[in-house]
Amino acid sequence: MKITTLGYPRIGKKRELKKANEQFWAGKINEQELQTVASELKAEHWNIQKENLVEQPTSNDFSFYDQVLDLIVDFNCIPKRFQPIHHLSPLQKYFALARGYQDNELNINAMSMTKWFDTNYHYIVPEFYKKTHFKLSESPKAVQEYTEAKAIGIDTKVTLIGPLSFLLLGKEKEQGFHRLELIHQLKEEYIKLLNKLCDLGATEVQFHEPILAKDYNEEINFALKTVYNEFKKRASKINVCVVNFFDCYGDYLPTILQLPLSSLHLDLTRCGEQLKDVLSSQYLNNSLTLSLGVVDGRNIWKNDFKKSLQFISSAIDVVGKERIEISTSCSLLHVPYDLELEESSTKINQSIIPWLSFAKQKLQELKELQEIVESGSIYTHPLFIKNQEIIQSRKDSDQVHHQEVKNRVDTLIDTDALRSSPFKERKEIQKNILQLPLLPTTTIGSFPQTKEVRQQRNLFIKGKITKNEYDTFLKEQIKEAILFQEQIDMDVLVHGEFERNDMVEYFGEQLEGVTFSSFGWVQSYGSRCVKPPIIFGDVSRKKPMTVEWTSYAQSLTNKPVKGMLTGPITILQWSFVRDDQPRKTTCEQISLAIRDEVLDLEAAGIKVIQIDEPALREGLPLRKDAWEEYLTWAVNAFRISSCGVNDATQIHTHMCYSQFNDIIQHIANLDADVITIECSRAQMKLLDAFSDFRYPNEIGPGVYDIHSPNVPSKYDIIDFINKAKRRIPVDQLWVNPDCGLKTRGWKETKAALEVMVEATQKARELFEIAV
């Protein structure tokens, strides 16, 4: 019985890739130095897999920025707007696609990003036209990595995003066609790639087709049959494995089982019942290898060997041990690197470490499962007994269960999720109190986390400066931020969040039932890495978390300062969540903790409170028949957190990188007084959903892209405001950036916000409406 994987974390043990990328972007290292870091990381990851008995480690799972972007470049479907940067090196062009490009003559918008299914990982969205012509690169990345591994004596299984998923995760940039129409021409380039790999000695390619976890579509099913039968016919020496994760194959399963595949991967952590469907199918042939995804690649809890061995045993009974591979459920991209790094950590709750498993430990779990199965004495094997003792210790722990928190959730009533008056009445009350102009300007919350801010935080954490010294520094930063916002005449101010390391981590550190790793970094996008909270027990708030800093900022100005909070769905979605109770229950616990904070902010005189929920949509189940249940409890959780305030308190929320059309009613059901959304990369098209629906509350479409260092022009922002005005009544509109400004530098931030406010003031004049 073999061990296989679907991908390994690419950032490195200590975020070496992030640091090298940022040094390259800053001009501090050259391309060769960056490539050296990449080569060292790949070699390390291949060797770790070999040490854990993975027969063929995966290649082509590494990426400098994003695996979808890699294919965009390799198949030459680069948007035409990037043609003027032909003078750049290939690597510089690659990064320009993701980050945009600006010089004295050019200002090119970056390609869009969106969430990878229901994860917090962002991918670059391919852009397709009727006449898109795919052309395989002379030196495709998959070929380069396979060759690189072979040069150090490692035979790898090549990982590729499948052609169906590549097309369907993109978007059409012109009307009158569907991107799936491009499948036949794209298929030809994939076949060329397969034959290139075959010529080099590659024996197996693992095609990731997670699009098959979504709702069934007859045209996709037909394309699936056509493409993979053609692969076998015209690249016959390559063994093809199809991989799906995050859900079942659903109605695609009969087609999948009839394809000429060497192996088929099943995510049994998200959809265990599909194994029974496969084993009992009339279409299961006697040569197909089953890759059983029994170790969870999305969460960090130790594998329950009893459950995994039940899956493995039932499969062996039907197809035999030689046709079974055991694997992770999906790529380990979504979990931290190595739990051993936490053994000296003073941050993590050390008593829960035995319950956890990071990427390296997940490989060890596969190795142990293999050993147990091969021993023939499954339930008496020492490794099995030790595993079950740890699983039981977690179930019994008094660190996990707190009856007072459970009782509070159990006694929630309907009115806890209702504002006392409808929006129309609240709007008039808030208008009289806040006295805001037409097109109020604000930001999403965070200001640049400069090197100095990070250094001071690090000094405080290490005990090299006192709390008083650190607090004094933070107050100076807040004072400067408030002064700047007043100077440019911003309408609703923010304190800048200089005290916060991360929008989720900051709150997680102050909640009971939550702990944090010191080195548990996970890639979110590009060089952006986060350390998700670990929710291990019942959640409650110890004490006020933000009131002190927000109140201090408000004391410096007569303009309203927003209280800034992260919402319950986002904390849930961006955390490693306990798997021993329904997510709904955990979310309600978080909602009550945030509700307590909202009420304390209101009592402190804060009149505007923003509860960010950028992750609301990414929590959607992949199949639509499960949406209603999720959206009902998710919306209710937000309302529990926000609805305890008086009518005079204005509640904001923020969402980014989401498609809103199909959940717009549920967004309206949040009943936030103001919602701010990402819009600039989508050229306001996302706003059409709110326009068509006639969204009743106020809305701030992001007028410039904060993920790019480019500074917008005044005329671009006026144009955006005009586009918004054509869709939404002007008295409902706010003006703001797409997202928080934490990752930007002060120079570009100040320049962009000055332009934004100046453009808004000009737009007010153009509308000829008295402010």
UniProtKB/TrEMBL annotation:
Binding-site residues, Zn(2+) 1: 654, 656, 678, 739
Q: Which positions fall inside the Cobalamin-independent methionine synthase MetE C-terminal/archaeal domain?
A: 439-761
- The answer to whether keyword Transcription applies is no
At which positions is L-homocysteine bound?
A: 444-446, 497, 612
Where along the chain is L-methionine bound? 444-446, 497, 612
Can you tell me which residues bind Zn(2+)?
A: 654, 656, 678, 739
Query: Which reactions does this protein catalyse?
Result: 5-methyltetrahydropteroyltri-L-glutamate + L-homocysteine = tetrahydropteroyltri-L-glutamate + L-methionine
Q: By its UniProt entry, which SUPFAM superfamilies does this protein fall under?
A: UROD/MetE-like
For activity, the cofactor(s) needed are: Zn(2+)
- Which InterPro entries does the annotation name? Cbl-indep_Met_Synth_N (IPR013215), Cobalamin-indep_Met_synthase (IPR006276), Met_Synth_C/arc (IPR002629), UROD/MetE-like_sf (IPR038071)
**Recorded metabolic or biological pathway in which this protein acts:** Amino-acid biosynthesis; L-methionine biosynthesis via de novo pathway; L-methionine from L-homocysteine (MetE route): step 1/1
Q: Which domain of life is it from?
A: Bacteria
CDD domains reported for this sequence? CIMS_C_terminal_like, CIMS_N_terminal_like
Residues of the Cobalamin-independent methionine synthase MetE N-terminal domain:
4-315
Output one GO BP term: methionine biosynthetic process
Q: Does the keyword Transferase apply?
A: yes
Q: What biological function has been recorded for the protein in this entry?
A: Catalyzes the transfer of a methyl group from 5-methyltetrahydrofolate to homocysteine resulting in methionine formation.
Stated family: Belongs to the vitamin-B12 independent methionine synthase family.
- The name under which this protein is listed is 5-methyltetrahydropteroyltriglutamate--homocysteine methyltransferase
